[in-house]
């Protein structure tokens, strides 16, 4: 079987239909899957939030950016950035 979707990958691997490479935040939620050690570290990515210059000082935009930064920061371990 072949799929590009992450959820079908989880479902198929949990059903014993093969191996898959998943982000930790998905694999850790699936009790039938186990994390396999690899000799190569996972990929690293940078995440940027673009805000228009004129909107940077708008309170709701600042609050939204802070909320996103905090939430993503808490997920850094699952995203491979810890």
Mean pLDDT: 86
- Tell me the β content: under 5%
The total of beta strands comes to: 0
Shape: elongated
What is the helix content?
Answer: 40-55%
Element pattern in H and E: HHHH
How many domains? 2
Largest sheet: none
**Rg (CA only):** 17 Å
Low-confidence stretches: none
> Number of helical segments?
4
Structural category is mainly alpha
Q: Termini distance?
A: 33 Å
Summarize the structure.
The chain has helices spanning 6-14, 24-27, 59-74, 76-79. The protein has 82 residues and is mostly helical.
Describe the protein.
The chain starts with 5 loop residues before the first helix and ends with a helix. It is 40% helix and 0% strand. The chain has two domains: 1-37, no CATH class; 42-82, no CATH class. The longest helix has 16 residues, at 59-74. It is mainly α. It has helices spanning 6-14, 24-27, 59-74, 76-79. It is elongated, with a radius of gyration of 17 Å. It contains four helices and no strands. Residues 2-70 form the LysR substrate-binding domain. InterPro entries: LysR_subst-bd (IPR005119). This is LysR substrate-binding domain-containing protein.
């Amino acid at each position: 079987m072949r799929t590009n979707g992450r959820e079908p990958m989880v479902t198929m691997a949990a059903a014993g239909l093969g191996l898959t490479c998943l982000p930790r935040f998905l694999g850790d939620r699936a009790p039938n899957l186990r994390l396999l050690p690899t000799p190569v570290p996972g990929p690293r990515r940078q995440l940027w939030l673009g805000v228009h210059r004129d909107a940077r000082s708008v309170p709701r935009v600042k609050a939204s950016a802070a909320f996103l930064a905090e939430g993503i920061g808490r997920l850094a371990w699952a995203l491979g950035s810890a």
